[in-house]
TrEMBL record:
Region described as Disordered: 669-758
Organism encoding this protein: Linnemannia elongata AG-77
Ranges of compositional bias, category Acidic residues: 671-683
Keyword Nucleotide-binding assigned: no
Lineage: Eukaryota, Fungi, Fungi incertae sedis, Mucoromycota, Mortierellomycotina
Name of the molecule in the record: AP-3 complex subunit delta
Example of a GO cellular component annotation carried by this entry: endosome membrane
Keyword rRNA processing in annotation: no
Protein's membrane topology: Peripheral membrane protein
Family the UniProt entry places it in: Belongs to the adaptor complexes large subunit family.
Length: 789
């Protein structure tokens, strides 16, 4: 490189050289940075400006240029406009809040702000907005505020915008210059007014209440301006101000209504509707005229929002659904009038639009449209596999999209169907048989595991709605026979938990069964062994209930056919329980199976296995033998009680009988006694006299122990020895106590070491007490390997 800079590389040469040296880019850039360092040492301002321009480019590539910050300030102070722009650009790129040379820029920026050239002022303001620090904001705030009266509108506009950054760094400046900013709202230039409105709206986000005094001027702009973007800002600001000044609502209603009816701009229309909702202008409280005006405005807003849903733009469709969701709580009937276009949005390919539509549908469901909404949502779940989509010609693109949606979304649709049907204690359902059929359809077409939710609904409706109970039992029988539930091909999307509700309801209301024998056969089928243990346990309990009811009914028509059916059913249930449930790893299933097996064994002993003998009476009329007494004893004894629904707060409504004091003792509590003291149980002496009380203080503990010692001294040594002998004799024959000779811990440890484990008797427990020791098969101990267990 020529030392005078005649052949120095320009920025264009640097970029060209980087492109030509792709293989050794790092070394080439390192050489260029070394050359730039030499160029910055020269006193040539042209060379320095060119070097800073190249450094700025390299900084954008990730190379540090903070070492040249002083040279950047030198270029910023250049009298040439081109070099000044390069300097400010370098400062914007490389300076930060900790840059040391920023203190040197204060007078430089003041000088540029006072320039007669509007372009230099613009460069200074632009650079200041990026490198502003609290110190610069404090030192330059007064100069910038004074420039709000500049003769050039472009300067006033830029000063207003940079003042926002100044106020963030130096909040005290806002208090000093607020009146000057307020005057700019009446500036003759529209761009300056728009800038003032933007700054005020941004500042009002932190505390809108401080800007209530600007309401008259802002309202004037709202009614006179034709700048849509400025109107949007003003309307947003009014939406934030109305909660602090309720009188604004009535004042804003006419101009905003006019804008909603006349403006073609979708953005402005949405902001007007949002302000109407957020400002509470749709509230129907108050006089009749106010309520009528609010209803008319709400109808206008909903009608306008329909155009959003009909627009192909996805963004407009989403914000339209969002606004309708906010109007829904106050005017659900108006939103429900447009359910046709809302339901179409379920087929939209955008998942966010579909989710927002579901939120809207949940809120607008009522008795009139519930059936249609549920039918539409269910059709949205069909078909559940891709083959059905390609073979069905009647399905549109929306249904095809629904067929391939993820399981989380399918589960969400089903949960929403259940919610809109069951909300407010099933207030919207007029036909519970229809709802039960819907739940049954969801069981088959869900494609995801929602069995818990469906199970709870089946049981809730079955218990609550007595008029639909007969249909419920019939439907549960169909579910018990459904092989898709009892033998699922895929466990991850199986809804077999509904079988728990099916079994429980058929057992609880077995009197409504048309054929109890069929129900017992379904409960005892082999596929039951593959179900969840909770379902198996319910199956066993239901099996016993239905069998007891059916067996009880046989006593009224006892004949040979009934006897034969009973014997076959007992054998069927005994074999099924033995094969599938008796060896279940689940303890609950195993216990219930054991109980039922014992009951079936007892019944089998009392039911005759041989054919009944028909006796001839004196009148030669054949008479059947009396049925066994066991037929009518099981069901009335255990299961002849119908379960009725009880409200969660029903107990609170039961009045307390007169004369009953719930705070007094029914029986006086037994006084607690001091535990017996012994030499080998010294720890008892440290325990408080009352087991439930907290530890006492050291002083009281010491005093209590001293008192007990005095009582022990009064007791004779002979009585104490006699009591110990009796206790040892008692423990000697106790199979659960391994004792030893001696009272001291050392003697106890020694006796336990010499203890013969093999001499401990093995006893058999029974309800009558302990039996005599029996001889057990001798095997090595699994723990220690010694002796026999």
């Amino acid at each position: 490189m020529n030392i005078n800079g005649l052949f120095a590389h320009s920025l264009t040469d640097l970029i060209r050289g980087i492109r030509q040296n792709k293989k050794n880019e790092q070394s080439y850039i390192a050489k260029e940075i070394a050359d730039i360092r030499l160029e910055l040492r020269r006193n040539d301002p042209d060379l320095k400006a060119q070097a800073i321009a190249k450094l700025t480019y390299l900084q954008m590539m990730g190379y540090d240029m903070s070492w040249a910050s002083f040279h950047v300030v030198e270029v910023m102070s250049s009298p040439k406009f081109l070099y000044k722009g390069i300097g400010y650009l370098g400062a914007v790129q490389s300076f930060n809040q900790e840059t040391d040379v920023l203190m040197l820029t204060t007078n430089l920026i003041k000088k540029d702000l006072a320039s007669a050239n509007a372009s230099e002022i613009g460069i200074a303001i632009n650079g200041l907005s990026h490198i502003l620090t609290p110190d610069l904001a404090r030192d330059l705030c007064a100069d910038l505020v004074a420039m709000l009266n500049h003769s050039r509108p472009i300067v006033r506009k830029k000063v207003l915008l940079v003042l926002y950054k100044v106020f963030l760094k130096y909040p005290e400046g806002l208090r000093l210059s607020f009146s000057r900013m307020k005057d700019r709202l009446e500036d003759p230039d529209p761009s300056v007014v728009s800038a003032a409105v933007n700054v005020i709206c941004e500042l009002a986000r932190r505390n809108p209440k401080n800007y209530l005094s600007l309401a008259p001027q802002l309202f004037k702009l709202l009614t006179t301006s034709s700048n849509n973007w400025m109107l949007i800002k003003i309307i947003k600001l009014f939406a934030a101000l109305t909660p602090y000044e309720p009188r604004l609502t009535k004042k804003l209603l006419p101009p905003i209504t006019t804008l909603i009816q006349t403006t073609p701009a979708m953005s402005l229309l949405y902001e007007c509707i949002h302000t109407v909702i957020a400002g509470g202008m749709l509230a129907t409280t108050g006089s009749g005229s106010n309520a009528e005006s609010a209803n008319m405005l709400a109808a206008t807003c909903v009608t306008k929002l329909r155009t959003f849903l009909e627009d192909p733009d996805q963004n407009l469709k989403y914000i339209g659904l969002l606004a309708l969701t906010k109007i829904l709580p106050s005017h659900p009937h108006l939103v429900a009038e447009h359910k046709d276009i809302i339901l179409k949005c379920i087929d939209d390919p955008d998942i966010s639009i579909r989710m927002r539509t579901l939120d809207l549908i949940v809120g607008m469901a009522n008795k009139k449209n519930l059936t249609e909404i549920v039918k539409r949502l269910i059709s949205h779940l069909l078909p559940i596999n891709e083959n059905d989509v390609t073979t069905s010609s009647s399905l549109n693109n929306g249904a095809a999209t629904a067929a391939l949606m993820d399981p989380t979304y399918r589960a969400d649709i089903i949960r929403r169907i259940i919610f809109i049907c069951s909300q407010n204690s099933y207030a919207n359902i007029t036909n519970f048989e229809w709802y039960l059929a819907v739940l049954s359809d969801l069981t088959n077409i869900a494609g995801v595991n929602v069995g818990e939710s469906l199970m709870q609904q089946f049981m809730d409706v079955g218990v609550r709605v007595k008029s639909a109970r007969s249909y419920t039992v019939q439907l549960m029988m169909r579910l018990l026979a459904d092989k898709k539930l009892t033998e699922p091909t895929r466990t991850e999307d199986s809804n077999s938990m509904v079988l728990l509700a099916a079994a429980w309801l058929t057992g609880e209301y077995c009197a409504l069964l048309e054929n109890p024998e069929t129900a017992l056969e379904l409960l005892a089928q082999k596929s039951t062994a593959k179900l969840d243990p909770a379902i198996q346990a319910t199956y066993l309990q239901t099996m016993l209930k239905i069998f007891a009811y059916w067996m009880n009914s046989l006593q009224y028509s006892w004949n040979e056919e009934a006897r034969q059916s009973l014997v076959e059913m007992v054998d069927l249930l005994r074999d099924g329980i033995k094969d599938m449930f008796s060896r279940s790893p689940d303890l609950e299933v195993q216990e219930r199976a054991s109980n039922i097996s014992v009951i079936l064994d007892i019944i089998a002993e009392h039911v005759p296995r041989t054919p009944l003998k028909i006796a001839n009476s004196i009148s030669f009329a054949p008479t059947m033998p009396k049925p066994p007494a066991v037929l009518g004893s099981l069901y009335p004894l255990f299961f002849n009680q119908e379960l009725n629904p009880v409200a969660p707060k029903a107990q609170k409504k039961v009045p307390v009988p007169e004369g009953l004091d719930l705070e007094s003792w029914i029986h006086e509590p037994v006084p607690e006694q001091e535990p017996e003291s012994s030499d080998d149980d010294d720890f008892l002496n440290e325990r408080p006299s009352r087991w439930g009380e907290e530890a006492v203080s050291g002083k009281s503990k010491k005093k209590g122990k001293k008192g007990r010692d005095q009582e022990d001294t009064k007791e004779s040594a002979e009585a104490k020895a006699k009591r110990k002998a009796e206790r040892r004799e008692r423990q000697k024959h106790d199979p659960y106590y391994i004792g030893g000779g001696g009272d001291s811990p050392k003697s106890q440890k020694k006796s336990q070491d010499d203890l013969d484990v093999d001499s401990i008797p093995i006893v058999q427990l029974s309800m009558d007490g302990f039996a005599k020791p029996i001889v057990a098969t001798r095997h090595p101990c699994r723990v220690c390997g010694r002796g026999d267990a």
